[in-house]
Write a structure and sequence with these properties.
Layout: H1 3-18, H2 35-41, H3 51-64, H4 68-85, H5 92-105, H6 110-113, H7 115-120, H8 133-147, H9 152-169, E1 178-179, E2 184-185, E3 188-191, E4 194-201, H10 209-220, E5 227-232, H11 238-247, E6 252-256, H12 257-264, H13 270-284
Parallel strand pairs: 4-5, 5-6
Antiparallel strand pairs: 1-2, 3-4
Helix pairs in contact: 1-3, 1-5, 3-4, 5-13, 8-9, 10-11
Amino acid sequence: MDNDLLRSKYISELANSLYSWLPGSAPPFGKTYTFQDVANEYRLVWNEGSKLPALQSLLEQAERKATLVNVVLRIIKEGIKYRDRKNNPVKRTEVETINSILLKLGYRIPDLHDEKFLSALSPTNLSKVVVDHVELSNFREEYHKMQQNPDAQSRGYEFQSFLERLFKLWQLNPRAAYRTEHDEIDGSIELDGEVYLLEARWRSRPTDKEDLSNFYFKIENKANWTRGIFISISGFNEQALNYLTSNSILNFIAIRGGEIELILDGKVDLLDMLRKKVRVLAEEKRFYFYDNIKTT
């Protein structure tokens, strides 16, 4: 995709993410800082009419005039106050989403990555789920039985059901596998207010470039805030991961079989694992793995 088209796409994503932070123009009573005020402050044009196209135009102007960082910081500073007054406090995940879009555009604003600032935002809430150890032990036994199943197709269906119940144990509101007009989806979950589509593979070989690319485009063809989780018991081809990291805008995290074992053994909490992977993806544009498994 042409670089200008990509940047236009990312600006559109940024506008969608910032849409609820401020009103477009001043309300009839009282004084509230608005997107129009942002435009006036930085000598940009605020187009009257529909708010979203006007915001996108504002951000495009700001980038052309090399003031995008300042404009975004101003919107966030005033938006936090505005959202608090509306009893709709800004959530950490919202800022992390904005950070990930800015990274696509080549900007990293240190203040927005500061852990003290992020921790002070409305928790999404990053609550802990107390998992019953007996139930987790049952999952571990079931997983080991699946490992003995030589029928790859039936094992794949078992694995989808297994994951749905495992995610339910951590209160992630899972949806079972389903079909759309164009795609077959292995399920979905909700993590910290965001929806993640699932891809689950249990094959004898590591997941390759074609499989990763296909999942990438599945997500890309959904809403621009859609994310994904690719679970591959046999791991991932390292060259394919490196290719995707270098040539694509990552929109999913990856989990290997060794990490499933860590969860089932009670060595790593599933929620902690998912959040860590999402954060590294947003901040560093790379896949993060807990285990030491190497694939070729």
